[in-house]
C-alpha cells in the first residue's frame, strides 16, 4: 500500500512539475516577446527624436538666414544664381567687381547636406517638399503629398521607416510655416503669414539603431534564459519538497488507516454537532451497520443504544466538552436484532487549543457479560445446594 501511495505521489509531483514548468516557460516567452517589442518601439522612437532634433536645428539656421534676408556668396561653377528666386536683388556686384548671388535657406540647407553626404556615406538626409513647388526637385512623392494635405488640416508630424539606397531610414516629415522673411521669395505665390508653405523631410539611418537593438535583444534573451533556468530549478526544488511532504502525509495516513482497519474495538471521532469525522471499519463487525450508514445518519450512534440504557448514555454525554468522562458500560441493539454489551471510553480532542470533538472507543464485552451471568447463576445454584 505504501509503495502504491509513493508511486501515486510521485506521479502527481511529476504532473505538477510539468504544469508549473510549462506555465513558467510561457511567462518567460511572453516577457521576452514583450521586452523585444518594447525595445523595437524604443529604437524607432529614438530615431524619431534624432530626426526631430535635426529638424529643429535646420529650422534654426534657416530662420537665421531668413532673418537676414538671405546670405550672398560668390558665383562659382557650383554656385550659380538660383533661377527660382524671384527678387530684384538676387544678384549683386561688389565695388571690386565680384559677382555675388543670393543663397536662400533652401539652397543653404541643400548644400550643407551635400557636403555632409561627402563626409559620411551613411548620414541623415534632408528634403524640402511642397504642394506648390517652384523647384521640380521639391515635388512630393505620394506619401509626402498625403502628409502635406493632412498638415493643412492641422496635423503636426508624420513618420515612417523606408529604404533609401537599400538602407533602412526613419523618415520624419514636419511642416514649416510662412514667416515674414519667407515673403521676400514666396510672397508672389500668395502665401500669407502662418500659412503652411511646405514641409521638411528628415531621414535618419536606422542601421546604428538596429545594431544597438540587436545587442539589447541578445541581452534580453540571455537574461531571460538565466531567469528561466533559475525558475525551473526553484520549481523542481519546490515540487520535490512538496513530494516529500505528501509522502510523509501519505505514510502517516496509511499507518493510521491500517491501524484503524485492523482495530478490534469500535473507534470513532464525533463533533459537537454529532457530525462524524472518522469511523473505524470495525463498526460493522460490532453493530452490523457500515461506515457509510453511520456517515449518512450520525443519529444511529444514539438510535442503536438499548432503550433501558439511553438515559444513562444521555447523562454521560451531556457535558460534551468535559475533559474526561468515566468509563461506562451499556447495551446496543445490532442491525440484526442482537443485544451486545459495550465498554465505552471517550475523551476530548483539542488542536492548538481548539475543541474538535470527542474520540470514542467501544469494546464488545458481551462474552464477558455472559460469563459473569453464568458465574452468578452458578454461585446461586451452589448456595441453594448448600
Describe the structure.
By secondary structure, this protein is α+β, with helices and mostly antiparallel strands. 50% of the residues lie in helices and 22% in strands. It contains ten helices and twelve strands. The chain has helices at residues 2-67, 105-119, 142-152, 183-186, 207-261, 282-287, 291-296, 300-303, 310-316, 366-385; strands spanning 71-74, 91-93, 99-103, 125-129, 158-164, 167-177, 196-205, 266-270, 276-279, 328-333, 339-351, 354-364. The strands form three sheets. The chain has a five-stranded antiparallel beta sheet, with helices on both faces. Helix 1 crosses helix 2 (105-119) and helix 1 (2-67) packs antiparallel against helix 5 (207-261). The longest helix has 66 residues, at 2-67. It is rod-shaped.
> Would you tell me the overall average pLDDT?
83
Helix percent band: 40-55%
Rg, alpha carbons = 49 Å
Shape: rod-shaped
Q: Give the topology string: H per helix, E per strand.
A: HEEEHEHEEHEHEEHHHHEEEH
User: Kindly, what is the distance between the CA atoms of the first and last residues, rounded to a whole number of angstroms?
Assistant: 62 Å
| Biggest beta-sheet profile | 5 strands, antiparallel
Strand order of the largest sheet: 9-8-12-11-10
How many helices? Answer: 10
- Secondary structure tally: strands: 12
Class from helix and strand fractions:
alpha+beta
Low-confidence stretches: 1-5
Q: Strand share of the residues?
A: 15-25%
